[in-house]
Design goal:
Layout (H helix, E strand, L loop, with lengths): L5 H17 L12 H8 L3 H13 L3 E4 L3 E4 L15 E6 L5 H16 L4 E5 L4 H9 L6 E6 L6 H13 L4 E4 L10 E4 L1 H14 L5 E6 L4 H16 L9 E4 L11 H14 L5 E4 L2 H13 L9 E3 L16 E3 L2 H16 L8 E4 L2 E3 L5
Parallel strand pairs: 3-4, 3-5, 5-6, 6-7, 7-13, 8-9, 8-10, 10-11
Antiparallel strand pairs: 1-2, 12-14
């Protein structure tokens, strides 16, 4: 059996410590465990730990202070470190082709400019593997903290993202998504309020047979909108007819043609609803546009025969389409609150609540 030399043991411990620092296990400003604790964990002598830490100090990753311990001062090697420290925040988001995301990023950047804080933006499109990779490697970027606007197409991806969020100590704020139990701050749209307000609007216009149409229905924001619909129906003592509720679990973002899949889903919905539904709350504007398109092809008059509402206020009328009654989400305010939460997190300010909700309002137009 080969015996590991003292030199190779120091190298092994050194590499493990570098890896943990780069992954954010010990963030910048935090102290490493004591040499005694590290020696016990790595099953080696304190002299080996001391030599490994000396190399970390030489590389500029840590500073050693008598009685104060060893503190992390950088999370990248000197050779990998930029000549100028940006001291920036990062915002990771899927695409700026979606108006709501674009407006959120603009709100974030405007708040950063007002605070004289640099911002690095990273887009990943619908590449979910890239999204997960960026989150896992945030410590490698020259940023202090990051906001992420995640796109989660399946429960499996959500589980993987949750695992990364639990393991990483990098300061992170979730945008328009809250994953309870992870201890991560989040800034979200008040989706329950959105679903409730839009349903009440249809009920108060004299309708009884009100439905709900959604894709990506298992996702927390959509599930909250559906809960708002159910609550409004219960408040009004209206029976929820299963034929009028369509919850499609799948959703594949299409930034080039966002209406394509929504039209197909709307067609399936109207076949199921059997022409009996009087009004429909759609979980987003593009579904509402798809539903209006299919209804008109089937010779239904909107809003005379069927009233249609959306949520988000992003699918604007092109001039040929009817102006959509919808729930206006103040995305710029969402981005501003994300920045403020991220700044507070970095400054280690106390937070009474981990979740911040941004509430919008109904905009009544012609479709309902």
């Amino acid at each position: 059996m080969s015996v590991q030399s003292p030199t190779s043991k120091v190298e092994s411990v050194y590499r493990l410590l570098v890896e943990r620092i780069s992954m954010g296990v010990w963030p910048v400003g935090e102290c490493l465990p004591t040499e005694f604790e590290l020696a016990s964990e790595f099953d080696c002598g304190r002299h080996t730990i001391s030599q490994a830490i000396a190399r970390l100090a030489h590389e500029g990753l840590v500073e050693r202070r008598r009685r104060a311990g060893t503190r992390v001062i950088h999370n990248t090697m000197k050779s990998d470190r930029p000549a100028v420290e940006l001291d920036a925040f990062a915002f990771i988001y899927p695409s700026d082709r979606h108006e709501g995301i674009w407006r959120t990023v603009n709100g974030f950047q405007e708040a950063a400019r007002n605070a004289d804080r640099r911002v690095v933006t990273l887009t990943m499109g619908t590449d979910y593997e890239k999204e997960v990779e960026l989150v896992s490697r945030l410590a490698e970027f020259d940023v202090r903290a990051a906001a992420i606007y995640p796109i989660i197409p399946s429960p499996d991806v959500q589980m993987r993202l949750s695992k990364l969020l639990v393991e990483s100590k990098f300061p992170l704020v979730l945008t328009d998504l809250n994953l309870p139990g992870l201890g991560r701050p989040s800034v979200v749209v008040d989706n329950f309020h959105a679903g409730y307000v839009m349903t009440r609007h249809l009920l108060e216009s004299g309708l009884s047979r009100v439905g709900f149409l959604a894709n990506h229905s298992w996702a927390p924001p959509v599930a909250e909108r559906y809960r708002g619909y159910l609550w409004a129906m219960e408040d009004a003592r209206k029976t929820v007819d299963a034929r009028f509720v369509f919850l499609e679990p799948e959703m594949i973002p299409n930034y080039e043609n966002p209406l394509r899949d929504n039209v197909m889903l709307a067609d399936r919905y109207l076949k199921t609803a059997d022409g009996m539904v009087e009004g429909v709350v759609c979980s987003n504007d593009f579904l509402a546009r798809g539903l209006i398109h299919v209804a008109q092809k089937r010779k239904f008059s909107v809003p005379k025969d069927i009233k249609v509402c959306g949520i988000d206020d992003v699918a604007k009328s092109s001039g040929k389409e009817m102006p959509l009654t919808t729930y206006h989400v103040p995305f710029e305010e969402l981005g501003k609150k994300v920045f403020e939460t991220l700044d507070a997190l970095l400054r280690k300010k106390s937070m009474s609540e981990l979740e911040t909700r941004v509430r919008g309002e109904i905009v009544v137009r012609e479709t309902a």
